[in-house]
Amino acid sequence: MLSRLKIKTKLLLVFLLIGLVPLGMVTYLSLHKAAAALEAEVWDKFAAIQKVKKHHIESHFDRIRAELRITRDDPYIQNALWMFKGAVEASFGDLDSEEFRKQAATYDPRMEAILSDNGWRDLFLITADGDIVYTVNKLADLGQAVSGETLQGSGLASAWRKLADAPVDAIAIADFEPYSPADGEPAAFLLTRMTSRNRSVVGFL
Description:
This protein is of the alpha+beta class and 205 residues long.
């Protein structure tokens, strides 16, 4: 069919093709460049979001650490530890004894207010030997030993082990993982030592 076209027409088609090829290449390169720029912009925004989230999480845990230190050093909390420890020992571990229920009735309102003010899910008072003598929620972990068979694989026990070689004022963190006493719901733990005036360890919070 091309053999039937006039020379003028053939030349016109050749010039047209010569013009279209570079145009197509320019269009392709422009689209490729635009796509690359868009992808880079998306990744930059994603990185920015990740940075903001990281800062938010770090700020959140910094706030919790500060709240935990304040609570840890509160004489009311340390006194509560001694009272619950005494109640458990006096009743030979009976958490339904009259003395334990009396102490719970005394301290529960303040402890519940601490949870509400700080946004915590629970609060544990643990003796220096690792026995849990009080929790606000009073789940199956109450009365257990942190290092015992029931809790040894938990996040709470993990935080406990981290404190073994840490400075006295350290705060150990265990990330979210299923916690069996809470029906397997994910729970994270922050744990710190409670000390006396001479810096001896009297318990854990």
